[in-house]
Design goal:
alpha/beta; 7-stranded parallel β-sheet; 4-stranded antiparallel β-sheet; 41% helix; 15% strand; elongated
């Protein structure tokens, strides 16, 4: 089969690194680069570093408003499709390049396959959300990275041509890890880093970068005590316990998408001779993007804990006496990260 693949932005280049490599083993692929991201740091470096085949067509659309950019892509992509007459058009993700490819193909009655279909933020103010919804509803083959994505499509009435294929980004990651492993020690040394001793964050959403106050707050969080370590140390627990009335207990609201704080507090309870119980009000809600609210209570010889322990929604936590608990001088954030 002949397949026209549409890419134009960084995430699409990365996904195409694996998909194009496999497609070309059995099919003829025409790789079209819209030029949405066009300088070397935003485009060329990915083609070189991930060994992506060079684009067969580069439209050179460049920057512009959403309407102007998408319109220019639509016209040029349509011309390529008319000339190549592909059996399928393959699109990735949720960029303006995705939207242009989906619209052009549907107008020409060429079936569309959408890689990373079904993802939703449920925020129509995001241009990407509009792009991904339209692309999904115009696609004949929807390749979903998760069961949640499949459920999102079903909620919108899209059930045919839907397949759970996993996240192609994991394939790229595994390929890159294997290629980069021999160079890892030299790279870490050059950057002054230790293995497993650092975290990387990306901040690129316009909602964050275009608002100076919000951007400053984010940068301040990265450079300050943004995680409330000081509230969960051995010294802090001792202080709280000393203030409790007879029969009282400590209650901690520990809902956190990134950290498993219940293990920290359970270890602290064990070290202080206390009992701890935890409670979560349900499961993750993919439709609303809501995590369960999580609570932990701690006390020494409190009748109230005995009452809670009879409720099946509360569970007793067993801390580890041999664990290094957090103190005013020591904490280990990496140990409690949720590594998704």
């Amino acid at each position: 089969m002949k397949i026209v693949s549409i890419v134009g932005a960084r995430p699409q280049f990365i996904k195409a690194a694996t998909v194009s490599r496999e497609l070309r083993k059995q099919h003829k692929e025409i790789l079209v680069h819209t030029g949405q991201h066009y300088d070397y740091a935003m485009s060329g470096v990915f083609f070189d570093g991930l060994e992506i085949p060079p684009p067969d067509v580069n439209l050179g659309v460049g920057s512009g408003s959403h309407g102007a950019q998408t319109g220019a892509m639509l016209r040029s992509v349509e011309e390529v499709m008319i000339q190549e007459k592909p059996d399928w058009v393959l699109i990735y993700g949720d960029t303006n390049s995705t939207l242009a490819g989906a619209l052009a193909a549907s107008k020409l009655h060429i079936p569309v396959v959408h890689v990373e279909a079904g993802l939703r933020s449920f925020n129509r103010r995001m241009p990407e959300e509009v792009n991904r919804v339209i692309a999904d509803h115009l696609s004949a083959l929807l390749l979903c990275p998760s069961s949640t994505a499949i459920d999102n499509l079903a909620t919108e009435g899209v059930t045919e041509g839907v397949h759970l294929v996993g996240d192609v980004m994991l394939d790229v990651l595994n390929w890159a890890k294997e290629r980069s492993a021999p160079k890892a020690p030299e790279t870490l040394s050059r950057m002054g880093l230790n293995r497993d001793g650092y975290l990387m964050a990306t901040v690129h959403r316009s909602e964050n970068t275009d608002d100076p106050k919000r951007l400053v707050n984010i940068l301040d969080a990265f450079n300050s005590d943004a995680i409330p370590v000081h509230l969960m140390t051995q010294e802090a627990i001792a202080l709280y316990m000393s203030k409790l009335a007879t029969g009282g207990m400590l209650a901690f609201h520990i809902s956190n998408r990134s950290l498993k704080l219940n293990t920290v507090l359970a270890d602290l309870a064990t070290h202080s001779g206390a009992t701890s119980l935890s409670f979560a009000d349900g499961e993750f809600d993919p439709v609303r993007g809501k995590d369960p609210s999580e609570w932990l209570v701690m006390a020494q010889h409190s009748p109230a804990l005995d009452v809670l322990a009879q409720n099946p929604r509360w569970r007793v936590l067993q801390g580890h006496a041999e664990s290094d608990v957090w103190t005013d001088d020591f904490s280990n954030i990496l140990r409690v990260f949720r590594w998704y």
